[in-house]
Amino acid sequence: MTAQTAPSGEPTTSLGARLRSLLPAERWGALGFPGRWVGGAAMVLGPVLMLAGALLRARVHFFYPDQLAAVQERPVLMSTAYGLFAAGNVLLWPAVVTLASRIGERRPGWALWGGVLAVFGLFARAFHAGVDHLAFQVVHAEGADAATAIVSSGYGAFHVFSVLNLAILAGWTVLAVGAWRAGVLRPWRAVALGLAAALPLGVLKGTTPLSVVALVGLCAALVPLGLSLLRSRPRPRPATALRWIAVTALVVGALTLLGQAG
Predict the structure, then answer these.
(1) Which of 23, 25, 226, 240 is the most buried (most CB within 10 A)?
(2) pLDDT for 140-168, tens place per residue?
């Protein structure tokens, strides 16, 4: 029940109905979960954040001893670079799911395999980011030489996420072919999406010219598609959009504080 009668005789509205009025959520429609707003925003932010992170560390040599030495010399720069890259990688999962939903309207097989492989590949990169973070903390505590020795002793060791290394590469290729065959992306943008498969994978990997090409391709493929989703109608009123942005910022801030508290 959403409405009751107050003692004055005027109808009152339940808290849930008021919240739905202040922060209305659009029905998912054909795109399904996570919806066009989350999916569109992720398509814009994810690739851009990854490219920004890659460019910040571009002057540091690719291999991990140089990466760890740079952490000791320029900790803020390297932490920011790796943080932006990791954040962009996490934001790509709603983007991939939304893209797969679009592809699935006409090419469900390509959508299924491309979406599953690409998302699993993102999980593998998130695992690599966790290892990167731990190595950074060893640098801060024991120095770059000690961190390099520790990483060297375990580099290439098997982990369950090693199974997903091929998924990192294959997912983008399958998605690109599916997006082209489904008419979601024009041929040149589908090729740009497929370039993401060339992004180096693994622990403490720096930036190479191929990394920049792959991430620029990812931006060229996903950012325009994300913007088109965000611009499509119906659009929320400006006041509603501002309320959603404010609430999202508050939630992210609260989650950050709680996460730091352990």
Answers:
(1) 226
(2) 999 999 999 999 998 888 888 888 888 88
